[in-house]
Amino acid sequence: MQPYDRALLRKHLLQTRIAGDVATPREGNLAHYRRMVAKDPGYQFGLVLKDWTFDQTLDMMARLCGVNPDPRHRQGADTIGVDLTIAALDEMGARIGRAAREQETVLLATGHPGPLMGVYRAVEDALHAAGCTVLTPAAGWSYQVITANGSRVREIVYTSGVAALSTGGRMQHTHDPNPMQAMLQELRDSPEQSWPDLVIADHGWAGTAGEAGIDTVGFADCNDPALFAGHAEGKIAVTVPLDDGVFPEYYEPMTDYLLDRAGLAD
What we know:
Strand content: 15-25%
Number of strands: 11
Number of helices: 9
């Protein structure tokens, strides 16, 4: 697939269910919207959001993410608007392209290191080659979390210049804002280190950066309303709607398209 071919990308996103009819269940989506509305810390992603009602949240998610707008649809499949995904990729690509041209200082992090690490690594490699400074603060910083299986220590680790969490050497999915808070605090406490011009991230990594006033672009699934709410409130510059849990190789054409839009394709 040619990375600049929008029609082929659209077909690919639908075939792989990155967008369109996605595997994320409707009942889970609605439950997460209610938790965000109730200000459950696990569903704020580090953002300090205004008071949202459930109806406002569903309407916002239909508009920005493309979920079914009907509140009577409570179970079964849900959707992500493929044209919304592509439009947001265009916006993200433009912002990444500006970072490359101006050789900005960037920070990359993911709460989905299994599926999405390849996307972030490709962007990092392209920005590094363009002369950008890629920050890696707070490497090795750790904290304890309580899980159903007991207490666990989670640690910030870097794959090249992309931050993620690890427990016992295994990469972890996370919504937590704590790691990005630690990274930004280290940058504040270290005058010799630059403050990021741009953060490229997801989940609590993105929300925390956006709340700190950093220009932030990110990816979010249809069960992650906080980043879309943050975008609606002007705290997140771009939120790309997608299913963030498909096979890693399925994101490769999307990554090619994103880099092409940034002017960074090979």
